[in-house]
Amino acid sequence: MKYPLIAPLAAFSAGIMAAQHTQFSFPELSTSLVLLAALATLALVLHDTRAAMLACLAGFALAGALRASWPAAIAPDRIDRLDTPRAAPLRGWVRVPPTVRLDRDQFVLNLESLGGRPASGGVRITATRDAGQPPLDLHYGDRIEFPARLHPLRNFLNPGSFDRVNYLHRQDIYMAATVPAAAVRRLAGRRGSRFLAAVWRAREWSEQRADRLMGPQSSNAALVKAMVLGDGAYLDRTLGAAFQRTGTYHALVVSGSHVALLAWFALLLFRQIRVPRGPAALATLALLIGMVLLVGAQLPVLRAALMVSLYLLGRHFYRERRTLNLIAAAALAMLLWNPQDLFDASFQLSFLCVALIAGIALPILEQTLEPYRLALLDLPNVDRDMHLDPRIAQTRIEWRLAAERLPLAAVAGAMRGLIAAGEFLVVSLTIQIGLTLPMAVYFHRVSWSGLSANVFVAPLLSSIVPVGFLAILTGWSFLGRLLSVLVGLMVAVVEWHARLRWLESRVPTPPAWLIWSFAVALVAFAGTLRRGRVVRLATASALLAMVALLAIHPFAPRLDPGRLELTTLDVGQGEALFLALPNGQTMLIDAGNARGINLGEEVVSPYLWSRSIRRLDVVALSHAHADHIGGLPALLENFQVGELWVGHNPPSPEYDRLLETGLRKQVPVRQLTAGDTKVFGGVTFQVLWPPADYVPLPTPSNDDSLVLLAQYGEHSFLLAGDIERRPEQRLARGGLLGPLDLLKVPHHGSRTSTSDHLLDSTHPWLAVISAGFDNPYRHPHPDVVTRLAERHVSVWRTDRDGLITVSTDGHRLQVTTHRLEAKTILKSSNSQILKSPFPPPPPRPPGVHPARLPE
What pTM was computed for the model? Predict the structure, then answer.
């Protein structure tokens, strides 16, 4: 068998996946493994190789299920297992030193005690600083103590959201806390590993050396620290987005390619100075171990180092080196150590990238460019032509004829350059096509500018990594200047390609059948590269068809025709409302915002993509506070938008950025005022606020909010933005409000809103509150909750229920949430709640309907 480890890897992975959906007991699995081993032995004795192979593969599958089902040991005093108080003194030691931001420091604390009780586990600490206060001078192993308010980790409870909790749990982090930097107090002694303390000191020294060589505020220094040391904390977000759009972000993340480049450079250097193969391999391994520790033992680096180590081991013993076997061996080792890596996007991308090169790019190169590269060897030697393929021999003759007009060395050099460029192009195209599926699934991005960008970025990266290490180790200024030139060239290439936006598209999550079809087509193409031309053409056509379907995504959005749907997304302490209209149009109001997270890009867009949505007919801004407007520019970038609705907002950086993005994307802007009526998608939208004579304050305020009343059939929804008491009173006294079915509670349930005036004039049945989990403002306020309870309003909250969807066909209302799978159905005819965890609302007064504004 050519690649004997691939089938066991597939079986082991299948067992891990099966364990996610079925519970296995240890006695069942162990007994089955023993029986399969006996069956395989018996089959070998009877010379039935096929039966033995099947039994072995079944055994690997059961072994995978057994490893995935193995219970993990959990310390009884781990912080997420304790009854933790809201605020308590924390004592522990610094496991990950601080990342310095403009107004805060972020680090990971390994707990020793909580409130005087023993505790363990990691806590992500955010230490806030006042203006002019220096960053915390903390290092690995430092013991500290401070009072802090603990926050449980929680995901955004929407379909399509990233599983941040599981991601942090894999890093042994179970809580978060915020503390003023001035409250952090040092304690005597140190904790942790002396070896890791030395590694962190070396890392800090390396970063300081990079700052001295290139300037502490230099964007080039931030890039070098990312590409060489694996610290991307200081990267400029705009530049990082440019690398993402061009499919070259792999250059910024220390990964397998960086490890391979460093190993290649070391082996080349040792060969030049005539170091024997064995000592050279050992020295290269030592260098790789140093790199792994220097970048913090990040998982992609560990995987790549393991694969390179296996390669060097096989090279030392003169074994046939089959790259796919090395990949399978490394993957088996990693999955045996931690089977949950199988579901990690980084794990999948790392191994898929290397597998694409080994299984597709190299075979293509062997049949196309490799013979011509070999033809350049000993080109003046005519006798060598006799032992080559006739076409290659003819090519050598033509090259020698060309040398009659040009020096032979120049001809050979030019051809080597063209062949190298062709190799980069083949590898780049292979990776680009092969990664189309995971890029669409995980990042909702298909970028074709990477085809040409990587042709330049790859060789630049192959120079930056070794030159960066040499510059940091030696401190030579001329290497620092060379490094700046190389990084500057890479940035110029990426920024130029980033301007070619037509080469990039954002795509929704592909359907399951397309995912499996793409995988089958990719494997089939790899398996037929050495078959006949017709077979290769057929599999290549099937693969390209799958790629086209992924990029074009000609699939209809998942909407319910004939229904009005209002979905309140869980965006923390902010707001984002999605409306699906009966005639198939879509609308989004606000997109939330959070410190350090672009919720429009990372939360709202993935939810829309999970529903196969590529177009929003209307994007509306309630008002220009950051927790409403912050994510909207990303929505205008990611989706085709028909119109942008705004009210009366004063100039502000966020508002100006939104309008500039809309102008660049050629989105018409509609400014709405009270009295406007829009019949859109089968729904009547009436604008209740702001009035035509409204003059906003110099800075954005809650009372700037655009208030919309949506009516469909027998039902009406009031979308109240963040208005406070004064607009509520004016609307109530002006007779613009009447009985409602649903009230989107203004200002996240703040005490300054949802007054008696509003509730007494609307009599809502349902109230939806968008509030952040464990938010510092204590929204919704107890007074608001009490006022709603006194009126028997069924209250739904994103901090408690996650995403909330209220939909109607014009007669009946349905409510679903992220947590509540069963639907809550209300009959408007007799106001009877068929199923609801809340007290019933009062009946609607007969014959009373919401007031209409004049057309």
Answer: 0.86
